[in-house]
């Protein structure tokens, strides 16, 4: 069922997260909060997880949010595969955004 699918996807994501030096610090349902040593690691990992999710879910990816400082935003804007659908200005906007965006958009 659904719980098994979530568990399988999370297990599939674990090696990707580890390869990018990520540290899972909270899980909630099908959501994972991960800390990375750099924005580069975070974005590269997020894109690979989106690819993995799309392959496992008949083309549907995963919603990804990357929180960074202002200097890192310039890196994100220049990344060839990172084209955010929305840029948050504070983490307080996250609950509203999660309701508005589909599962294959990047926030």
In summary, what is this structure?
By secondary structure, the chain is mostly helical. 49% of the residues lie in helices and 10% in strands.
Please explain how this structure is put together:
- Helices cover 49% and strands 10% of the residues.
- With 107 residues, the chain is mainly alpha-helical.
- It has a two-stranded antiparallel sheet with strand order 1-2.
- The radius of gyration is 13 Å and the shape is globular.
- The protein starts with a helix and ends in a 7-residue tail after the last helix.
- The mean pLDDT is 77.
Give the helices and strands, then pairings.
Blueprint: H1 2-19, E1 23-28, E2 31-35, H2 39-56, H3 70-78, H4 94-100
Antiparallel strand pairs: 1-2
Mean pLDDT across residues: 77
Distance between the termini: 28 Å
Radius of gyration: 13 Å
Strand content bin: 5-15%
Annotation, overall tally of beta strands:
2
- The global form is globular
The major sheet is characterized as: 2 strands, antiparallel
Element-level helix/strand string? HEEHHH
Uncertain segments are none
Report the total helices. 4
Given helix and strand content, the structural type is: mainly alpha
Binned, the helix content reads 40-55%
Taking strands numbered 1, 2, ... along the chain, how are they ordered across the largest sheet? 1-2
What descriptive keywords fit this protein?
49% helix, 107 residues, mainly alpha, single chain
